[in-house]
Write a structure and sequence with these properties.
Distance between the termini: 46 Å
Largest sheet: 2 strands, antiparallel
Helix content: over 70%
Strand order of the largest sheet: 1-2
Order of helices and strands: HHEEHHH
Strand content: 5-15%
Shape: elongated
Radius of gyration: 27 Å
Length: 169
């Protein structure tokens, strides 16, 4: 049995083994498959917990922004401009100031959207890494010029790392 089985293949092997179990089945084969299934379950559980934590953090950040937008929507002032013949809207300055603190990257306020920024940076970095994979495909135009191709891949990998680091600052 190979160590490189996918989760789906490993589960299929486990089901097959369970159906074939008899008093003649070697105990070591059973122990190996149970051990591998347990390892994969641990990894999957850890990934699930990390995903849930990320979801909760993103939800909290999005909740902040929704509250700010709702405050503006509920507290804006509408009036008819006498000289313009059109409706105008105004927002109290304290709401504008609070929103500006949250969304402006030019102020020295703490970034309340760190997880959102990190998530988006990871998406961008994965795109850059996808480009590295593309450079290595047989149908890629970069395969023909190997020297250039290698330095390009190094540059893209470095760029992906910079994208990730940019989110943490």
């Amino acid at each position: 049995m190979s160590d490189s089985l996918s989760n789906k293949e490993l589960v299929a092997v486990g089901h097959h083994l369970a159906k074939a179990l008899s008093s003649d089945t070697p105990i070591m084969d059973i122990a190996k498959i149970v051990s591998r299934l347990a390892e994969r379950l641990d990894c999957t559980t850890a990934a699930l917990h990390a995903t849930r934590a990320q979801r909760d953090q993103l939800g909290a950040e999005n909740g902040k922004m929704l509250r700010l937008l709702t405050d503006i929507s509920e507290n804006h002032l509408e009036y008819l401009s006498e000289g313009e013949d059109c409706m105008m809207a105004g927002v109290p300055l304290d709401y504008v100031s609070e929103i500006n603190t949250y969304v402006s990257r030019d102020v020295n306020a703490e970034n309340p959207f760190k997880q959102t920024d990190a998530f988006l940076a990871e998406v961008r970095a994965q795109g850059a890494e996808g480009f590295i994979d593309f450079c290595g495909e047989e149908n890629s135009v970069f395969v023909e010029s190997k020297a250039y191709y290698r330095s390009l891949s190094d540059a893209v990998a470095e760029f992906a790392e910079q994208l990730r680091l940019g989110a943490s600052q």
